[in-house]
Design goal:
With about 500 residues, the protein is of the alpha+beta class. Among the domains are: about 180 residues, no CATH class; about 60 residues, no CATH class; about 90 residues, no CATH class. The chain has 13 helices and 20 strands. The strands form 5 sheets. Strands 1, 2, 3, 4, 5, 6, 7, 8, 9, 12 and 13 form an 11-stranded mixed sheet that branches. The protein has a 3-stranded antiparallel sheet with strand order 16-17-18, with no helix packed on it. Helix 8 crosses helix 9 and helix 11 packs antiparallel against helix 13. The longest helix is centred in the last third of the chain and has 34 residues. The chain is elongated and about 120 Å long. The N and C termini lie far apart (about 110 Å).
């Protein structure tokens, strides 16, 4: 039951490109987010196998969810265009449901998506849309028998389990018309050689498939390596569909199966039409010219306008630069700049702006409370230091809560206090002769005076004083006085 590689084109290979539809109900939530099942591993209480016999096991859902979360792209009908984003992706296999205490008959990949306004209107109007994942996987071939289930109409064959999809990578999830991939849960598989070669094509041209089941499809651009055909409805069918296609190594185009059939393509290299090619090239040149003009217009914006434009989508940027200068300037005026640095404008969600302002107010209140607490602590500590001038500054320095000027004043107060304490603490009384004013006291007084005059610390002033002749002489005298013992009684 390992992965099997088949070298022949069109009969299955290890790596397959997938486009699978999950026909579950799409529910609308708040804030413009819609929710649906993007893929199933279990549906209505039973292990889910699609009409091509493929299963996605529970243990592959997390990897698929991670890859979709990175791209976060919401497409339309697998035609290469985007119509929104997928900000929320959650794998919900049975074990995760049990851990979250969720009970559901389904298991699979739950997604929350935000469509464009046009698609939101279509969903709100009740149009039938489904989710369809797009990506690649490794198909493991398995052996199984067709199971039977009883039904009021007799025996109905269930889908045979032929392959298990492993190493699931979901590149995008698309909105497709219900039944676009066949009845209910049909899928389209584009078989691809491994590795896929790069085909150099010199002509850029659309092509048509050969007719099958009364209809044919447009291949938009056969210069591409792969893609999806146009969306068509076969005569007598309720729903339409499109087909995946790839270009093979020999340059031919192979059409994948959808809605129970496929198509062939005549030699697409003979379908080139000079007028169409020229038209396509002219359109491409026009697109390049527009892009250059838009880039130049954006680069000419003022810094404020450029900051505003950076947050817009490409279409919105084009609309913004097309406005008049007063209109651009008005839109680029911030309504609030958060303390975090994030800028909000008038067209931002009012609730987000309100939340940012509330957060800033809370931060200001917290900072004020901290400053008040620090001031109270300094005052409390200063009260415990009696008889010292500028005690609040000294305590503030300990708490590291002073400005530069306050620190300077605190150091001066400390120098004066040191000199005063040294005078008071001269030894007196029993066995010691008092000294009127020792050389050491003179040094300290002179250093304190120099500190006040020069606006430097006491230590700096003391060191500078020792470098002078007078200071050096006093220091030598003080050193001698400390060594001479006094006579006792």
């Amino acid at each position: 039951m390992g992965a099997r590689k088949v070298a022949t084109h069109g009969r299955g290979v290890t790596t397959v490109a997938i486009a699978k539809t999950a026909p579950a109900r799409i529910a609308k939530g708040k804030l413009g987010v819609y929710f649906a099942w993007g893929a199933f591993s279990k549906r209505d209480g039973e292990i889910f196998t699609d009409s091509h016999g493929d299963r996605i096991p529970d243990d592959e859902l997390v990897a698929g969810a991670l890859s979709l979360a990175k791209s976060a792209q919401l497409g339309h009908e697998h035609d290469g265009t985007l119509t929104g984003s997928v900000p929320l992706v959650m794998p919900l296999p049975e074990d995760i449901q049990a851990a979250l205490e969720i009970t559901s008959p389904h298991a699979g990949l739950a997604v929350g998506f935000q469509p464009s306004p046009a698609f939101a209107a279509s969903l709100d109007a009740g149009d039938e849309w489904e989710m369809s994942i797009e990506g690649v996987a490794v198909a493991e071939m398995v052996k199984s028998a067709i199971a039977k289930s009883a039904d009021a109409g007799g025996e109905i064959a269930k889908a045979e389990h032929k392959r298990t999809l492993r190493n699931l990578t979901i590149n995008k999830i698309d909105l497709v018309k219900r039944g676009a991939h066949g009845a209910g849960t049909r899928i389209a598989i584009a078989k691809r050689a491994e590795p896929s070669p790069v085909i150099e094509v010199t002509k850029r041209t659309p092509a048509m498939t050969a007719a099958a089941a009364g209809h044919q499809h447009l291949i938009h651009d056969t210069e591409e390596r792969d893609g999806f055909t146009g969306y068509e409805v076969a005569p007598g069918s309720e729903y339409g569909h499109s087909h995946p296609w790839i270009r093979l190594e020999d340059g031919s185009v192979e059409i994948g199966e959808a809605a129970g059939h496929t198509h062939t393509v005549e030699d697409s290299n003979t379908m080139a039409d000079t007028a169409e090619i020229n038209k396509s090239l002219a359109a491409a040149q026009n697109d390049v010219t527009k892009a250059r003009a838009l880039t130049a217009a954006v680069l000419s914006l003022s810094p404020a306008e450029f900051a505003y434009a950076r947050r817009l989508s490409p279409d919105a940027v084009a609309a913004y630069v097309a406005k008049s200068a007063p209109e651009r300037a008005e839109l680029a005026k911030p309504v609030h700049v958060a303390k975090s640095g994030e800028t909000f404008y008038s067209d931002d969600d009012a609730r987000l702006v309100s939340m940012a302002k509330a957060n800033d107010q809370m931060a200001d209140a917290l900072e004020a409370a901290r400053a008040s607490a620090a001031t109270a602590e300094i005052a409390k500590s200063a009260a415990a230091v009696p008889m010292i001038k500028s005690a609040d500054l000294i305590v503030g320095a300990i708490h590291k809560a002073l400005s530069g000027e306050e620190r300077k004043a605190a150091l001066e107060a400390l120098a004066t206090a040191n000199a005063s304490i040294a005078t008071v603490c001269q030894p007196i009384g029993s066995g010691v002769e008092p000294v009127a004013k020792s050389a050491e006291i003179k040094l300290e007084e002179m250093a304190a005076e120099r500190a006040r005059a020069a606006g430097v610390s006491f230590a700096k002033a003391y060191d500078d004083l020792l470098m002078t002749a007078e200071g050096a002489a006093l220091y030598a005298q003080a050193k001698g006085q400390r060594k001479t013992p006094h006579a006792g009684n």
